[in-house]
Prior knowledge:
Chain A has helices spanning 3-6, 11-35, 74-84, 118-130, 146-152, 155-161, 193-196, 237-247, 286-294, 305-312, and strands at residues 66-70, 97-102, 135-139, 165-167, 174-177, 188-191, 200-210, 214-216, 252-261, 274-283, 326-329. Chain A is of the alpha/beta class.
Amino acid sequence: MTEHNNNEVGRRQFLGRVTKAGVSIAAAGIIAAKLYDVQGPKPGVKAEDLVTLPDFSIPQENGRTISIVTGPDRTQTVGMAIELLGGIGRFVKEGQTVAIKPNVAFASPSKFGATANPDLVAELVRLCYGAGAKRVIVTDNPINDPASCFTLSGIGKAASQAGAKVILPRDHLFRHTTLTNGRLIRNWPIYFEPFEKVDRLIGVGPVKHHERSGASMTMKNWYGLLGGRRNVFHQDINTIIAELAMMVKPTLVILDGTEVMMTNGPTGGSLSDLKRKNTLIASTDMVAADSCGAGLLDLKVSDLAYLAKAAKAEAGTTDYESLKPKRAAVG
Amino acid sequence: MRIVTTRRISQAFFFALFLWFCIVSTVGEKIWQLRGWPVDLFLWLDPLAAIGTVLTTHTLYRPLVWAVGVIVLTIVFGRFFCGWLCPFGTLHHFVGYLANRKKTAVQRIRLNKYRKAQCIKYLILIVLLFMAAFPSLAATLQTGLLDPICLVSRSFNLLLLPILDRSVNFISVSARFYEGAWLIMSVFLTAVLLNLVIPRFYCRFVCPLGALLGIISRFSIWRIGQKEGECTDCKLCEKSCEGACEPAGKIRISECVLCFNCLDDCKHELIGYQTIPSRTGEITDPDVSRRGFVLSLTSGVLAVPAIRLSNKIGANWHHRVIRPPGSLPEPEFLKRCIKCGQCMRVCPTNVIQPGGFEGGMENLWTPVLNNRIGSSGCQLNCTACGQVCPTFAIRPITLAEKLGQDQFAQAGPIRIGTAFFDRNRCLPWAMDKPCIVCEENCPVSPKAIYTEEIFTTIRDGRLTVKEAAPDVIHVEQNLVPGKFATGDYYCVLDADNRIKIAANTENSIEFSPDQKLQKTPPAGGKIEIQVRLQRPYVDIEKCIGCGVCEHECPVSGKKAVRVSAEGETRSADRRLLLEPG
């Protein structure tokens, strides 16, 4: 064979090449057709990708909505407060999974009261397991560095020692939501995944002074569920707190007024910011709990505009006395 | 066991140890977190860091005494550090092996021959050391730019780890960011990829630590060399020679990294590790010409005043060069910082960043706080950066000292800067919108950010009354429904009557039952809508410059409150307050 002949294409070879070329052209065409986008992308998250936080609330029972217990020891007062509402068995059933959302906003030692008290969180975990809970998780999306917040506040250690799983807010745990009738929470990322598959949700936080909103209590505690650049909501703090109260329907909230941060809130940072009031409130109505808590900060209900807004949105009542709170003193 | 196997085990062990220390430089209590792991070990062992800081400060800072051990061992054994211990050397060794393993013996012998340019590393060393030894206050420590231990620490901790952890977020809850990492990456990739051209390129031509150890190894007691016997001159001993030190001829002791490949490759067992000089002779001195020496010495001496011409540590200092808490005054700081990046790695909030050229050339890769990056400015209850600093550039302060408590109460807290409001950008100042996120998050007690309440009439806020009742006023103008229902808006009837608005419709303003109007304005009367604002101020006597306010400021492009380094405790000439504390 000559060199020239080597370069000639045989029929078989030619057909082979034509087939390959044909398949490649077809593939390019099919892929282009599949990906063809006539409009370009729309801004924001698609409606079908939006999520809604489940409703964790339990049926109301007359006279067992709110309890106010006084005493210096949180582990005792919280036990009594829950007992007065019907016992932990009313809130957590055998085999259920429970999420506890403490206020872990700041990387601050627990003694300064800027975060939920670790002993209190641990006691709640123990109570849940005592009621037969299958799994208890403790989580928050803090303002300061999350890992540092859980470590320095002591909540991470206390919760895990009590048997809870501590979950830190990683990016993939957030989803976008839109609150029905909400004005601010629209197409906004919330800390969602840890709460998606639990049966019960318990919020727990301290009573703290807050220059912008007046007070940070159980409703403001749900700010920790907001993701994204949530600080922009401070322009309309009362509306966002009210909308949080509409968005989150917890099983139970615990408002810890054992040591109340009277000044320099919500960060505190000094023991002189705290005042011992030895009061702990448990409630299935967080508007009532916060309305009651306002008194611990020497505030009236009307001083906290978000309370009236939340009440108007039927998230609860500001007239907590109408609920006939159960009262007791321990220790 | 063959000695090269032992060497490989040693390299693998120390490389693994290095990786482990990279991982565990995470603040926390778990076994894979910081606890008490000696994460600075390789930096302590680094003789270049030790000699560099000795030249600048005339003292040997405590942990760097480890490096004396390395120097002693080098005097006994030669450059074992390069061939057996150095994680960067191991990386080059491995990459060089991968790149050249398919080459023929002849090609490899050619690759591993000695090159005149290997003297460049000595010249680099001379420049860096003379910069450090510069007499007077102006000495500067720039060894860290090319020090292999600093380079590899920086590259692994600030580059590879964040990239690898990004998808799993195992080490850090949220992704870590390092500004200007591209430059660190460029240097690292260049150094590693040059192994494709010549194996151990960095070690042979660039590494100032290798050069230093090369100079020291001239005194070594044991050396590689040929024993008495019949050498066939096959040159196989140079086939895998890592240091390109020519064991077949006159071996260059200063280039030998003690890889022991020659010992293994010689079929006639003529190479030994011995106390007597090689049969074929040896060259102990680095191949530096007098001209090269003088030139690099002069460069080193002139470099410092040249760099300092920009006056970046004098009056022209850059306000964004905010150093971590506990940092020494700038001239002392620059005498000690080796740019290893350990503080940037360990910082739990990721706020400590590798510096760029904003503070002059010396600022490159030194720690600078950038409150826009990370999870929350400089965390109040944290002193991690000073604890890992291997050279005392950042002092290992206690929390009490940082916060100005106990015996430090008199001195007050350590300030790293001062926050300043940009009233042209701040929502309550410039746009009549309530906000004060900065005040909320100020961690100091009492807060360094305080507010003053003012009421100001909003744009289009002068309205005409159509009709009024105690709980509602109808107005002539059109309003945006609900706009004034936020709890921040008030209706002003006259100087004595300012009533909070509960809600509004398109043309009416409503009041809540407990805040009704005492007297109703007449039809045709004028009312004003005012917004209640809390305008933030900084109390410079309280501000510590932590930057949490800047981090949290919702004006996210150019922040409306920004920290600059004025007022930092460490330098008297940048102080703002007349009285300390």
